[in-house]
Structures are given as structure tokens and as C-alpha cells.
Amino acid sequence: MASAAEKSFQLQLQMRRNTEEMSEFLKDMSEWTKDMSQKDEQLMKSVDITAPVLPPVRSQPKPRKKKKKKKKKSVNFEVEKEKVQEVEKENSEKKNGEKKGDKIRGYDYRAWDKFDVDAALKEVDGQADNKTEEPHSGEEEDDGSTDEEETDRMEEERKQMQAVYHKEKGNQFFK
Question: How far, in Å, are 76, 78, 123, 155, 162 from residue 142 at the CA level?
Fold first, then answer.
């Protein structure tokens, strides 16, 4: 029996040591948290709340000085002008005809169940037919824009096309 009594005594002694170690650990942890909260408060008090004013990450492009050029109209220029006007007209028609109530949300399944796809396709086809039936006049239209504005617009389009080209090229290198 001495061995059983000795084992229980050893077990009790081990349990006391474990509880002492645990309480010491928890005491150290609570002291550390108090110290950290005090340091945090001191830092918050010492740090100025207003952030320093920093320059923007990337510089903004500076506006170019526009030079006046002589008016020269070419056939290609007029064709481009007409195309732009047609696209702007289409976009304005889409914006005017499109209301908030006309759109169906992606998560609105009941509305999608009620949506008639065939009727919508016929409507879109009818609009496309109406646009192709309009006669194209050979007369020049002058909307009051200058060559300078057109060259700026053409330059922006060129830059946009170049950006898309470089983006695609970068994507191909990434693959």
C-alpha cells in the first residue's frame, strides 16, 4: 500500500506545481497586458493626431498649352467626326431610354422569371434595323468644334488604343 499512497502523494504534489505554474503564468500575462496598455496610452497621448500633409503618390498631368492651328478638313476627319456623333447619339439614347426601374437586378430571380427574352431580342433587332435604314447624307455637319478639339480627341483615342495594346502585350508576357 505504500506504493499506492506514494503515487497519490506524488500526484497531489504534481497538481500543486501545475496550479502554481499556471497562476504564475497568468499573473505574468496580466502584468504584461497592463504594461502594454500603459505604453499604448502614452504613445497615443504623445503622437500628434493630425497627419502630415504629403504630396500625392503620383503627380497629376499638367495641362498642355493649346496652340492655334489653321483649319484643315480632310475627308477622313469628317468620317471620323460622323462616327463619333453617331456613337454619342446612341449613348444618349441608351441613357435617356434606360431608367432605374428598367434594370433587373442579378439577384432578383422572380423578375428574371417574368422577363420575356424573345420580346427583348425583337426590340433590340428593331432598333438595329432602324439605325441601318437611316440614309447617310454626304453633307458636312459642323457642330462648332474646332480642329484643335478634334486633334485633342484624336490624341486621347490614340493614347487609349496604345494603352490597351500595351495592356494586352503585358498580359501575354504574364501568361
Answer: 15, 9, 32, 20, 29
Query: What pTM, to 2 d.p., does this model score?
Result: 0.27
Provide the CB-side half-sphere exposure for 13 (13 A, CA).
6
Nearest-CA neighbor of 145 among 86, 89, 92, 81? 81
CA 29 to chain centre: 44
Q: What nine digits make up the cell of 16?
A: 500543486
Q: Per-residue confidence of the chain (175 residues) as pLDDT tens digits? A: 678 889 999 999 999 999 999 999 999 999 999 999 999 998 888 866 666 677 667 766 666 776 666 555 555 666 677 777 777 777 666 555 544 456 777 787 888 888 888 888 888 888 877 777 655 554 445 555 578 888 888 999 999 999 999 888 888 888 7
| CA dist list (Å): 59 to 14, 62, 125, 162, 163 | 68, 9, 47, 21, 19
Tell me how far apart the alpha carbons of residues 29 and 36 are, in angstroms, rounded to a whole number: 11
> Within 13 Å of residue 172, how many CA atoms lie on the same side as its CB?
6
Rounded distance between C-alpha atoms, residue 77 and residue 74, angstroms: 5
| Cβ atoms within 10 Å, residue 104 | 13
